[in-house]
UniProtKB/TrEMBL annotation:
InterPro entries: ATAP (IPR016092), ATAP_core_dom (IPR000361), Fe-S_cluster_asmbl/transfer (IPR050322), HesB-like_dom_sf (IPR035903). This is Fe-S cluster assembly scaffold SufA. Residues 9-108 form the Core domain. Pfam families: Fe-S_biosyn. One of its GO terms (biological process) is iron-sulfur cluster assembly.
Amino acid sequence: MALAKMDVMTVSPAAAERVRGLLAKAADGEGLRVSVEKGGCAGMSYKMAIGAPLIGDEIIDFEGGRVIVDAGAVLYLLGTRMDVKTDQFSSTFVFENPNQTSACGCGESVELQPADPARLAAG
């Protein structure tokens, strides 16, 4: 019996709307590229940029938008929900990540552990 392919990350309707707005002037095939990089007081931070997919990246297409998960970030983002937090003066992407073990006090970086796909599939 084959296992069903699980999306690396889900995108909330609010995040999808924000992505569509960001991509309004992007070239065909480009998307919001999400990756993680070492840095910050907790060890890693999320990085986003408009770009084209590379070999090995995971692509999440939805009506009018695209999120590209960097191949090197897949295990850190598996099971994550991307959303938008809006307050009176700003709108920010937030990540509800089951692989996050802690975050710094300033909210700029997180500690992530690679996902265990078997654990996520069972849950």
